[in-house]
Specification:
Length: about 450
């Protein structure tokens, strides 16, 4: 790749994940999806922090320098990296007892190792914290950071002063060597060490938001048309989609991957638009590869591994057990749920909420189309239906702006020292854990 390019700046951490480095070397890279202070998106590949858990022998006390259980058998476990690291005495269930830190090859095997160690008689702690949360806790970081590192890939929207990397194939291989998945759909990809990350004073991040709406057939559940609006620091562009269902969904997916939003919004997308898009993409093809062209909204490369072979990969939005949607590298933020939480309206329809917020503004109201007769409306006046659809993508953005929903999430992330995703979709216990667990 020639001369190594270095870059440093401030950014806000949107979300994170982790991947094991290739070759079973017992090292893990942390992926941090960020939006820089100057407006471009960044994927940081962070090395230098590996997953671990801590163990103690319940039969020891503060005067015991060793354990009656076998530390040697722990270090000989194929899942463990090196020998357990003595930490000295730590408080556990009211007693000061010796603890050891056990480094693990991969986050995917932590749970099984924890269970096995417990069955051997060890007390196991610090084993259920996601590695990206561990990074923020151990390194005393919040969402707003400064970083410096090696530039691996540069997109069109990246700062002009960064020299462009010409060979995409070589860049992709270098990214994979460092634990990444390939060429992520972001503006800048940088490799750094945990020591290259520093907490900085909070700043208002220029997030990019994607709002969308589907109009569907009442008779057949098929998608008739769609609209989307990209809000980039207050500058909005509107996009309309008609044609076959496949063409509509492929158009939406290209827009998501090209414009690279941080937030995905709409009105009641959690319960309607996202599940309907998933349903129709599956209905249109049994192939994960073809489905990814219709609903591959994750901020990860379009590779076979990320698409999935036997089960769907990270490229697809997924609904969690708590019914919250997760999109790798992005944050679903339903304007319906934000209005419900903030306003507690008597009725929760978009028409009612819009009228509640802007009773005197006609341009902030829903248009007069009968959604219960959408097949007939689409057949008789498609232009009005499309205008109605576009309005229903603009209003959610206006609602989020009026309620200051995104700045509130960023502020909560800053106060609780979490990613913006955790502040948006996480639990109260995760916020408290971040504040209470010593760094």
């Amino acid at each position: 790749m020639g001369v190594t390019l270095e870059w440093s700046e401030e950014a806000c951490i949107i979300s994170g994940d982790n991947r094991a480095l290739p070759g079973n070397v017992g090292k893990t890279a942390i992926e941090l999806w960020c939006r820089s202070k100057s407006g471009h998106s960044v994927l940081l590949l962070v090395n230098g922090l590996n997953p671990y858990l801590e163990i103690s022998d319940p039969r020891t006390n503060s005067n015991s320098g060793s354990s009656s259980l076998s530390l040697e058998s722990v270090s000989e476990d194929w899942r463990v990296v090196g020998s357990p690291l003595p930490l000295g005495n730590k408080l556990y269930e009211g007693n000061e007892i010796p603890h050891w830190r056990v480094f693990v090859k991969d986050t995917t095997i932590v749970r099984k190792l924890r269970n096995d160690l417990s069955s051997q008689g060890w007390d196991v702690t610090s084993s259920d914290i996601l590695l990206v949360h561990r990074l923020l806790m151990d390194c005393d970081l919040g969402p707003h950071i400064s970083y410096s590192g090696e530039v691996l890939w540069v997109g069109e929207r990246a700062p002009k002063e960064i020299s462009r990397v010409q060979d995409a194939d070589s860049a992709s291989e270098r990214i994979k060597e460092l634990g990444g998945a390939g060429l992520y759909p972001v503006d800048l990809i940088v490799s750094c060490n945990v020591s290259d990350l520093k907490r900085v004073e909070p700043f208002p991040t220029p997030f990019v938001t994607f709002s969308y709406d589907l109009e569907t057939s009442v008779k057949h559940n098929t998608i008739l048309c769609a609209a989307a609006v990209i809000d980039r620091s207050g500058e909005r562009t509107t996009h309309e989609f008609i044609g076959s269902e496949k063409e509509i969904m492929e158009g939406l997916t290209r827009l998501v991957r090209d414009e690279d939003p941080d937030f995905i919004t709409g009105y009641n997308i959690d319960n309607f638009d996202l599940p309907r898009t998933l349903e129709r993409s599956e209905e249109n093809s049994n192939s994960f590869s073809e489905q990814s062209s219709m609903f591959g909204w994750g901020r990860v490369p379009l590779t076979n591994k990320e698409i999935g072979v036997k089960k769907i990969g990270r490229i697809f939005p997924k609904r969690q057990q708590n019914r919250v949607w997760r999109i790798s590298g992005r944050i679903p933020l339903d304007a319906w749920w934000q209005a419900r939480q903030t306003l507690s309206p008597q009725r929760e329809s978009l028409r009612y909420v819009s009228n509640l917020l802007w009773p005197e503004q006609d341009d902030k109201q829903k248009l007069d189309v009968d959604a219960s007769q959408m097949d007939m409306e689409w057949a008789n006046r498609p232009e009005e239906v499309m205008e109605y659809c576009v309005r229903d993508t603009i209003l959610p953005l206006d609602i989020l702006e009026k309620l200051k929903s995104i700045p509130r999430k960023e502020a909560l992330a800053s106060v609780s020292s979490t990613t913006v995703e955790t502040a948006s979709a996480g639990t109260t216990s995760q916020w408290i854990d971040s504040l209470k667990i010593s760094r």
